[in-house]
User: Which sequence fits this backbone?
């Protein structure tokens, strides 16, 4: 009875989240605190759905999410640094004559961070898959693909309902 109750609660929560895309659009406007809360909610939904999809028991889920959370925290920091560097690159590119040395240094750092993120993601997948049986590994791969697609679709819906963010305008025609 207990797992069925959790699944029902999860499904109800998931339906509410999907149905409230206009509310999400408002929460994105409020700032970083609401973004962090939204990310937490998405992470919780992902954990619940993944537990169900992989058919993890309590001990398996505890081991899996201990590894997962360790990697996710590190990746969040790397992504934050990556985004700071790309924002710096955007600011430099607004200048008609950006300093070439600074551009080169920044591009090397961005490439390095991207490689580090990719390497960390590969290690994460390897470590997580080592905790699973082959059938669970197959379910894990499919879950990752399907969940990412669902989130991209949801984000696309939300973005269509709000104006674009300042600082993310397109590159001027003469630079292209």
Assistant:
């Amino acid at each position: 009875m207990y797992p069925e109750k959790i699944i029902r609660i999860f499904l109800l929560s998931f339906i509410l989240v999907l149905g409230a895309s206009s509310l999400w659009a408002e929460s994105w406007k409020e700032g970083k605190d609401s973004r962090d809360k939204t990310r937490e909610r998405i992470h919780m939904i992902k954990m619940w759905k993944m537990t169900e999809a992989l058919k993890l028991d309590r001990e398996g889920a505890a081991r899996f999410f201990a590894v997962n959370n360790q990697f996710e925290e590190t990746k969040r920091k790397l992504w934050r640094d990556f985004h700071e560097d790309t924002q710096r690159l955007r600011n430099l590119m607004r200048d008609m004559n950006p300093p070439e040395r600074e551009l080169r240094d920044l591009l090397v750092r961005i490439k390095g961070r991207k490689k580090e993120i990719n390497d960390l993601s590969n290690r994460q997948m390897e470590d997580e898959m080592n905790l699973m049986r082959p059938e669970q590994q197959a379910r894990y791969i499919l879950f990752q693909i399907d969940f990412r697609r669902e989130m991209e679709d949801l984000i696309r819906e939300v973005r269509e309902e709000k104006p674009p963010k300042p600082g993310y305008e397109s590159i001027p025609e003469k630079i292209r």
In short: Helices lie at 2-19, 21-30, 32-54, 58-94, 100-129, 134-160. Confidence is low (pLDDT under 50) at residues 14-30. The first helix runs from residue 2 to 19. DSSP finds six helices and no strands in the chain.
